[in-house]
């Protein structure tokens, strides 16, 4: 089933980071022609907002949008949306007057289908491999201690490099002063030992996030980011792990909004 979210819009539309003014974030986007040059406070809309799942991001044209602008209905990914304080007055895409933003409901369909497929599949011959989720229909979904180990795919390395680049430029909806090793571990569901082994001389724990725009400013970069993220997920061999990773990444990005 599709799970919906019902929260006051004002909770989502008034987030900012200490030391970074809303004007900086909005001005960065305005320079790219994506947002108005200024935003003024507006009254929050209804106390209970439920937005159905679905819809593609208006900036990168890929599915899985996280927020919807109230007024025009434009949907965007959390990583493509300039979080501002005070609440936005106009949509950052079409510039229609707005009363705030609301979270789009997350869709569990892919995870549910993967679980059903695993449950219906005949047992694989031979010895069960440790950690093979496609042989374990009772695997606990969303277990925070379930971190990935093992080899890196080419797609994961490329996606990780892009994450590191945007982390360094402050163009992500990430909490101020977050450590790079913590961020990558959460986004990739990876054990810290796996990160350390792959990037021995990167000093991940010594690099902290400092927000600038708080979102990916260049639309071309936003499309590239979406493409690399999709390729990374599709490269995961396990059907249920692939579904869980897609859901997990979306949940992590939403953390920057909520």
Verbal overview:
This protein is mostly helical and 258 residues long. It has helices at residues 9-12, 22-31, 109-120, 154-169, 180-188, 192-198, 219-234, 239-255; strands at residues 67-70, 75-76, 100-103. It has a three-stranded antiparallel β-sheet with strand order 2-1-3. The chain is globular and about 60 Å long. Residues 1-50 have low confidence and may be disordered.
Compact summary:
The chain has 8 helices and 3 strands; from the N terminus they run H-H-E-E-E-H-H-H-H-H-H.
Give the averaged pLDDT, no decimals.
76
- Number of beta-strand segments: 3
Q: Given the C-alpha coordinates, what overall shape results?
A: globular
Beta-strand content: under 5%
Class derived from helix and strand content: mainly alpha
Q: Enumerate the spans where pLDDT stays under 50 for 5 or more consecutive residues.
A: 1-50
Terminal Cα separation, in Å?
22 Å
Give the C-alpha Rg.
19 Å
Helix content: 25-40%
Tally of separate helices: 8
**Strand order across the biggest sheet?**
2-1-3
What letter string, H or E per element, gives the SSE order? HHEEEHHHHHH
Describe the biggest sheet?
3 strands, antiparallel
């Amino acid at each position: 089933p599709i799970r919906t979210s019902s929260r006051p819009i004002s909770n989502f539309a008034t987030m900012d980071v200490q030391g970074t003014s809303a004007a900086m974030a909005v001005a960065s986007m305005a320079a790219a022609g994506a947002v108005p040059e200024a935003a003024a406070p507006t009254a929050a809309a209804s106390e209970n907002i439920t937005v159905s799942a679905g819809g593609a991001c208006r900036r990168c044209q890929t599915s899985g949008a996280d927020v919807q602008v109230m007024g025009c209905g434009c949907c965007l990914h959390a990583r493509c949306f300039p979080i501002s304080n005070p609440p936005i007055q106009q949509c950052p895409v079409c510039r229609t007057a707005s009363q705030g933003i609301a979270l789009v409901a997350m869709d569990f369909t892919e995870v549910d289908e993967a679980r059903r497929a695993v449950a219906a599949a005949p047992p694989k011959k031979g010895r069960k491999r440790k950690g093979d989720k496609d042989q374990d229909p009772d695997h606990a979904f969303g277990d925070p201690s379930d971190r990935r180990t093992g080899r890196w795919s080419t797609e994961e390395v490329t996606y990780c490099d892009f994450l590191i680049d945007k982390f360094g430029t402050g163009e992500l909806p990430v909490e101020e002063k977050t450590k790079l090793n913590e961020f990558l571990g959460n986004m990739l569901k990876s054990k810290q030992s796996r990160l350390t082994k792959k990037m021995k001389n990167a000093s991940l724990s010594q690099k902290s996030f400092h927000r600038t725009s708080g979102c990916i400013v260049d639309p071309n970069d936003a499309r590239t980011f979406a493409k690399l993220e999709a390729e990374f997920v599709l490269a995961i061999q396990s059907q249920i792990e692939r579904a869980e990773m897609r859901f997990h990444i979306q949940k992590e990005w939403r953390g920057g909004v909520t």
